[in-house]
Every structure is written in structure tokens, then in C-alpha cells.
Design brief:
It is built from 11 helices and 7 strands. It is of the alpha/beta class and 226 residues long.
Length: 226
């Protein structure tokens, strides 16, 4: 089963033998792949929309995995009971949505052992939230699948971590290990700051704002790692 570079990277981080809850499962490609590779024992494929759930059921049936993968219709972690899932995967959502999902189901979240997350935007905010809530980032991956560039974050319950600004934006594990795609990742972060500064610079009011100064300071900080 070809699930693409992004989901293959996500799959590589899921704990061996885990029961997985795949939130926003869409076609249930991730849990199907993981079951067929004998990486996980069972999966709960969850989605808020009826269409994706039906697509997931078709995938599960096509691969003969109805006993191992249960499809559930509902939002976020609200479809789960505490301790039903050891690993939780959430891919393709913004950081604010992921955080909202966690905050609306604290008991389910607290009972999980592992989180594997692929935010579409707002990774720095997500890393900050994870650290502040006792989820320690232990692995990160970058995937360049043009035209998209993905950051994948895996965390386990641990000590509260106050990640530095550089760690929030570049990733504590990525910053420590500097994998092959790190330079591109860093360049993208710097370019984002530069675009924001350019746009804000068109307005004297915006240029005099605290946000402008914060972005300027962030760019200078990030450039130290070039």
C-alpha cells in the first residue's frame, strides 16, 4: 500500500504493538498500512465527517481488516474513552485545531502514552503547548514532498518543558540533530519572518508595533543557526 512520504514518516514513529487512534483518518490509509505492516495491533479510525468515515469503511473492508480497525464518526477525541488508545495520531490539521481537540478531552489525552502530530501550520505554538502540558518531544521528522514541506512531531508524557523560542520554531530534536532537511526548514522559517516584516513595513503603525519588533528579534535569533 503506497501511502506517500508524509504518512510513511508518521507511520515510522508509531510505537510497535500499540493501539492507535487516528484522528481525522480520512480514508484510513494510515491505520490500514500500520496493521498490514504488523506495527500496531488495533486501530480506531476517527473522523468528524460522514464522507471520510464511509471512505474509511471502504478501505478497511477492501483490505479485510474489519476486526482490527473500527471506524468511528465524531469530533476529535470525544469518540474515545480513556485508555482506549495508547498512541494518538493527528495529521493534516492546524495547531490551534489540534490543541482544541486535546483541551476538550483531557482525560482521554492524559491516558495516552504517545502523540504523533503533523500540523499543517502553527508548529511553534503546538511545541510550546506540548511542553507546557508535560508532553516531551522525543522525535521529529521533516518531509519535503513538493509542493508541501511537513514537520512531524512525536511526544510522550513526561516533565513540563519550557522550550526556548528557537526550539519552538525549529524543533528541539531537529535543532539538536540537524537532519538533512534542516537547512531548508531553517530557511523557510527565516523567509516567513522576512515576508511578515516586509508586509508590516508598509505601514508606519505596524512598523512601530511590538509585533514588528518581536518578528525582527525572532529573525535575528533564527539567523544565528545558519
Amino acid at each position: 500500500m503506497n501511502i506517500g512520504a508524509r504518512l510513511e514518516a508518521v507511520a515510522s514513529l508509531i510505537d510497535q504493538g500499540a493501539i492507535l487512534a487516528d484522528i481525522g483518518t480520512d480514508h484510513a490509509y494510515l491505520p490500514t498500512y500500520l496493521i498490514e505492516k504488523n506495527i500496531i495491533t488495533k486501530a480506531l479510525a476517527c473522523d468528524i465527517a460522514a464522507g471520510p468515515c464511509e471512505a474509511a469503511r471502504q478501505t478497511v473492508a477492501m483490505h479485510g481488516l474489519k476486526k482490527q480497525i473500527e471506524v468511528r464518526l465524531g469530533g476529535g477525541l470525544t469518540v474515545l474513552e480513556p485508555e482506549e488508545a495508547e498512541s494518538i495520531a493527528i495529521c493534516g490539521m492546524g495547531a490551534s485545531t489540534i490543541i482544541m481537540i486535546f483541551e476538550e478531552s483531557p482525560k482521554v489525552l492524559a491516558s495516552a502514552k504517545q502523540l504523533v502530530l503533523q500540523p499543517m501550520a502553527g508548529a511553534p505554538t503546538l511545541r510550546k503547548w506540548l511542553g507546557e502540558h508535560g508532553w516531551e518531544i522525543y522525535e521529529e521528522k521533516l518531509v519535503d514532498d513538493a509542493p508541501h514541506f511537513y514537520e512531524i512531531i512525536s511526544a510522550r508524557k513526561g516533565e513540563v518543558k519550557n522550550y526556548t523560542l528557537a526550539e519552538q520554531y525549529l524543533g528541539p530534536i531537529l535543532l539538536a540533530n540537524k537532519p538533512e532537511l534542516f537547512s531548508k526548514h531553517l530557511a523557510r522559517q527565516c523567509e516567513s519572518c522576512e515576508r511578515l516584516l516586509e508586509n508590516m513595513g508598509k505601514s508606519e503603525k505596524a512598523k512601530a508595533s511590538a509585533k514588528y519588533q518581536e518578528t525582527l528579534a525572532l529573525l535575528k535569533l533564527l539567523e544565528e543557526y545558519k
